[in-house]
Write a structure and sequence with these properties.
It is a single chain. By secondary structure, this protein is α+β, with helices and mostly antiparallel strands. It folds into three domains: 120 residues, no CATH class; 218 residues, Transposase Inhibitor Protein From Tn5, Chain A, domain 1, CATH 3.90.350; 84 residues. The strands form four sheets. It has a nine-stranded mixed beta sheet with strand order 7-6-5-8-9-15-12-11-10. Helix 4 packs antiparallel against helix 5. The longest helix has 31 residues. It is elongated, with a radius of gyration of 32 Å. The chain starts with a strand and ends in a 13-residue tail after the last helix.
């Protein structure tokens, strides 16, 4: 063991400190391992530590470094200080989840050690852990987050070796292994939680860019789920199980319609995991005649949403009273294919949805009625042409499309050349609206399930919507700041891996009786920190001990429920 002088820049100043280091043999050759950070030492202190490290001190100080037995020294209590507070709970919990999933071993296998100073598998873990605990840019990770956390102790890589260039290169190294990682995680999650992948939920979302993204072919203007139609975007297609566990995802151009993604996604998932006996669940945005035919041709089973216009074919069934009650406020019934096919249609009626749609219709009807009344009076006062009035009527109806069919309008010209607006309400539209409010239609070729079972399976699509919300809000998937195509894809992959950790914690919480929402658990455990306790001793040296903060009563309960135990202290390691 020997001393090594170290420097660190902090607040524009250069600070020097000492570290006790030993050489160890690793698979990559000899490496220096820090035994303890000693802080500033005067000459007497350095000599004392050197003697202790070399066995030349008769006070027993060598046992401090070489033996796990209890070690005793005389400490000057008046000089004890605490410094170097670091975030510990979040990164430590993330590593516990990573170990359960075998993700580190899989990354080591996929990215074997080469000539790089820090293994790419470790750098990938840095990105995933930071994305889960404190989503931020690679630059902020390198300049702030890493050194303020305990990742250096947990991963064995000192802060000086973490820079934005190395993090960006880690993105490039990780991306080619996307498919293998998805397969590994799907299999491992199935083993850990006895998951069934018989029901596959598929949905599409979009996320927008900050910047022009001129070099990214997938960055296009399109329908934005984030209400940012002014920004270029990409579409993300995600497949999850019935409990929200992800199987895989794909990226598409920002202007690609949802309905055109179905064939590619289904084919990709089947090539990766096999067809088996799976049931695909998709909303009405994925439905087209070509997609239904594609699913049928492959012998695939499905449950799909449909456009509300098909309800017109089931007016008699809506009036009939032979509904089955799933729960209070929700009724369903099975109906035959109106075209004589083999599909089954599921008619659903929700009381809560009825109240919501009724309120929306009344709101837009009132807007249109007030707008038409005002426009008619304005046309009488001013010399407005029929074309001008027609344009205003069209704009008004276009802004309130949900109730546009409730009105019939006519624009004529009187003998004086002024435009005259006449309008009336369409009673047939109101009658149909009252009958169909709260109703929607599903279609399926699954013949051995009841209407209630089919409805419950379809409502599991909310798991896919929840996955997108977690990606965008908790993991900061949006907006995307990367400009290059492969960096964008790698960014989404990191978010996907962090989401897998999120869902793993969710399942552990559920098994432990803590619910299935891990936000509070993650926040509570992330509040645990480490501190460096500096102990001045009689022989002149200062001992630095990195200790883990004692959990609060609530934190201890959570850890006990999860079957996890915090370490009391950390070994300081430097690769």
């Amino acid at each position: 063991m020997y001393l090594r002088k170290c420097y660190r820049a902090k607040e524009g100043k250069r600070h020097a400190y000492w570290a006790l280091v030993k050489s160890v043999r690793t698979a990559k050759g000899p490496r220096q391992q820090v035994v303890a950070y000693l802080g500033d030492l005067d000459e007497a202190g350095r000599l004392g530590v050197q003697q202790a490290a070399g066995g030349g001190c008769s006070t027993g100080q060598q046992n401090l470094f070489a033996s796990p037995e209890p070690r005793y020294v005389e400490v000057d209590l008046s000089g004890v200080v605490v410094e170097g507070t670091r975030k510990f709970g979040g990164p430590w919990l993330a590593l516990q989840l990573i170990n359960k999933l075998g993700l580190k071993d899989e990354l080591d296998r996929l990215m074997p050690v080469g000539r790089e100073d820090v293994p790419w598998s470790i750098m990938s873990l840095v990105l995933v852990i930071c994305r889960l605990c404190d989503p931020s840019s690679e630059l902020r990770i390198a300049e702030h987050l890493y050194e303020r956390s305990s990742l250096a102790d947990l991963l064995g890589v000192c802060a000086e070796k973490i820079n934005d260039d190395r993090l960006y290169r880690a993105l490039d190294e990780l991306l080619p292994h996307k498919a293998e990682l998805e397969t590994h995680l799907k299999n491992r999650l199935g083993e850990l939680f006895d998951l069934s992948y018989d029901l596959l939920l598929y949905d599409v979302t979009s996320t927008y860019f900050e910047g022009q993204c001129k070099g990214n072919e997938q960055a296009r203007l399109g329908y934005s789920r984030d209400s940012r139609g002014d920004c270029k975007q990409v579409c993300i297609a995600l497949v999850v199980s019935r409990c929200g566990m992800p199987l895989g995802y794909e990226l598409f151009a920002g202007n690609k319609a949802d309905v055109t993604t179905v064939k590619e996604i289904v084919t990709t998932m089947e090539e990766r995991y096999g067809k088996a006996d799976r049931i695909w669940v998709m909303d009405r945005g994925m439905v087209s005649a070509a997609n239904v035919e594609f699913l049928k041709e492959g012998g695939r089973r499905y449950i799909l949403g449909t456009h509300k216009t098909l309800l017109r074919k089931y007016e008699k069934q809506l009036i009939a009273s032979d509904w089955s009650i799933v729960h209070e406020g929700l009724e369903v019934k099975l109906c035959p294919d109106p075209d004589g096919g083999t599909e089954t249609f599921i008619l659903c009626r929700s009381a809560a949805r009825r109240e919501k749609e009724k309120a929306m219709h009344e709101k837009f009807e009132k807007r249109i009625e007030e707008g038409l009344t005002s426009l008619a009076k304005l046309a009488e006062k001013r010399s407005m042409t029929a074309v001008e009035v027609s344009h205003r009527v069209g704009r008004l109806l276009g802004q309130n499309t949900r109730a546009a069919g409730a009105f019939k309008t006519e624009v004529t010209t009187n003998p004086l050349g002024k435009a005259v607006l006449k309008w009336e309400k369409v009673e047939s539209w109101r009658s149909w609206a009252q009958l169909s409010e709260g109703c929607y239609l599903l279609r399926s070729n699954v013949s051995d399930w009841t209407a209630a079972e089919l409805w419950r399976a379809y409502t599991q699509l909310t798991e896919a919507e929840t996955a997108f919300r977690i990606h965008k809000s908790d993991l900061s998937l949006r907006p995307i700041w990367h400009q290059k195509s492969h960096r964008v894809q790698a960014h989404v992959l990191i978010c996907f891996l962090a989401y897998v950790l999120w869902k793993t914690l969710s399942q552990l919480c559920k098994s432990a009786g803590l619910g299935d929402e891990p936000r509070k658990v993650l926040d509570e455990i992330a509040a645990i920190q480490t501190v460096d306790v500096i102990l001045p001793t009689r022989c002149g040296q200062r001992i630095r001990k990195r200790c883990v903060g004692k959990p609060t009563e609530h934190q201890a309960i959570l850890l006990h429920k999860l079957g996890m135990k915090l370490p009391r202290s950390l070994e300081v390691v430097d690769l």
